[in-house]
Description:
CATH topology of the domain at 153-289: Rossmann fold
Number of strands: 13
Radius of gyration: 20 Å
Distance between the termini: 26 Å
Organism: Levilactobacillus senmaizukei DSM 21775 = NBRC 103853
Domain HTH lacI-type: 1-60
GO molecular function: DNA-binding transcription factor activity; transcription cis-regulatory region binding
Strand content: 15-25%
Pfam families: LacI, Peripla_BP_3
Mean pLDDT: 92
Keywords: DNA-binding, Transcription, Transcription regulation
Number of helices: 11
Amino acid sequence: MKDIAQTVxxxxxxxxxxxxxxxxxxxxxxxxxxxxxVAERLNYSKFKRRPVPVTKELKIAIVQWYxxxxxxxxxxxxxxxxxxxxxxxxxxxxxxxxxHSDLSSIDADVxxxxxxxxxxxxxxxxxxxxxxxxxxxDQDQLAEGYDSVVTDFDIAVKQVIDGFWxxxxxxxxxxxxxxxxxxxxxxxxxxxxxxxxxxMEDHGAFDPALVFSGDYTNQSGYExxxxxxxxxxxxxxxxxxxxxDPMAAGALKAxxxxxIAVPQRVSVMSFNDTTIAKFVFPxxxxxxxxxxxxxxxxxxxxxxxxxNGRTTPQRMTIGxxxxxxxSTK
Length: 329
């Protein structure tokens, strides 16, 4: 946090409060954005795969389905974008970015589009009209004929549940997210919810009463956990799986306010392992997703098409690992 504070030019207290989503802090959006971006960059390890030279300087448009403001509420997508931009710089590609799926700013002579997030069929068609070279990050579009880079959610969720199970925690709650594409034409189902339901059913332990939904924000995590606490009281499950870090941070706040000890009474496992996982109290155990690799792999898929003339669509599935910290026993 000292490194972040020195780089941005703010106090240590300001960094701490911003990373803990303290909305009572009076700080500009520009400073807030800087703090999150610097935190993510300092958290990176260099991706060491040797670049393959491309015969031309490619022009790549990065389409981020989040707005600039919303990107700060869920660092997962910002982390992917930063990793993608870093890889473009390493390969000497010209990268331009557009937020909230705004395609009007994309140049007509763009060589490829890398789309981060979730997109409806209509949005995919609109991008394909600009260039046939599309790569999707965090959405599987292989069936539609496009390169895709995705996370292996099924194995990750199985490992989470196996970990709780091994600790004797059979009654496991879930806080997950729901959202829509920016054109509101496609409801996006959280793949971690589907994997959780499937895995718990295999254990004969799925209970829909223990499942709570939010919108991936810190506030929705807080509200979902408060609902669970009021609903179950002393019968609150001893373990919760939360499908992203902002929601998990909100859940921790609710548990703290109600005097429920973590992890002594309730264990909390999060997902994505963005920077904030290490700046909340207690520090969050989380499934680490290599967001830099997700972004880098997308750029490499574009380069591969130009280097090798590949036309067959390819899907890259990136594995995860569980990072245990203080929020779990």
